[in-house]
Amino acid sequence: MVSVIIPSYNREKTIKRAVDSVFNQTYNDLEVIVVDDCSTDKTIEVLASIKDDRFSYYKLDMNSGACVARNLGIEKAKGDYIAFQDSDDEWLPDKLEKQMKAFDNKDIDVVFCPFNKVVNQKTEIHPVLPEGIVNRDALLGKSCVSTQTLIAKKECFDKIKFDPLMPRMQDYDITIRLSEKYTFYFVNKPLVNMYVQGDSISKNKTKLLNAEIRILSKYQKEAAEFPAFRYYNIGAFGAAKRACKFKAKQEYKALYKIKPSVKNLLKYIFVAITDISRKSYKSFID
After folding, report:
1. Residue 220's domain spans which residues?
2. Are 5 and 70 in contact (CB under 8 A)?
């Protein structure tokens, strides 16, 4: 059985669609667990109206974030596999069926897929990867696993849980830790519609900045061992600093040193010139 965990917070308008898209799967050996993070709208009323023996919901005692909600869902899960859905997104009907087939290979522990990113009626597919096993260097070199596309053997979460202190990039953070021990497989078909909401956490620049600070602080070993990881996260940190109106010359200089190119040189020169009017902020560059 697959346990599907959905954290929710103030999603009265979308939570039913998210749950129904799981119940409408062609693979139906599943349960759905919604953990509500103290919603202040009518989300709980919507959840209470769902009548299905495969469905249960819980409410956190205090507003604690999606990571705490997911971790509680993992504790309550009865399935041999754990999958995640977001409260404002939609699974395509054959998602679980196609992903579960990958586990016919007993060496596979975690399976993910691309998603259709829907913004203002425009759709983009992310990520673009070839079908098959994805090595750790690729998984660390860019955030490519989105939580609502991920399904894994339950044993993967025995000791590895979501980090409640991650304000964003929780999926990237848990991928870094899971990939140290477990094998990832990519099913190359978009099986999720991800709808970017106006209040989506992915739009919060300050949370991105704080998330990159935590990533670079936690994974100094990976930064030393994997140049792709260091390049990607220094770049993301620099971009987040720029978005928050802070100086980022050191980061863009480091990017040029890691990957010398005309493009990176021009970026560094532009940032160095435009940094003059900006405030200084912490850096991870020596």
Report:
1. 204-277
2. yes
CA distances to 118, 143, 258, 277 from 247, rounded to whole Å, are 32, 24, 19, 8
Q: Is 146 helix (H, G, I), strand (E, B) or coil?
A: coil
Number of domains in the chain: 2
pLDDT in tens, 2-57: 999 999 999 999 999 999 999 999 999 999 999 999 999 999 999 999 999 999 99
Q: Which residue from 252, 243, 254 is spatially nearest to 273, judged by alpha carbons?
A: 252
Residue 285 inside a domain? The answer is no
Q: Is residue 286 part of a domain?
A: no
Q: Which amino acid is at 274?
A: T
| Its pTM surpasses 0.85 | yes
- Size of the chain in residues: 286
CA distances (Å), origin 204, targets 143, 175, 197, 256 = 17, 21, 12, 27
Angle at 42 between CA 38 and CA 44, to 5 degrees: 55
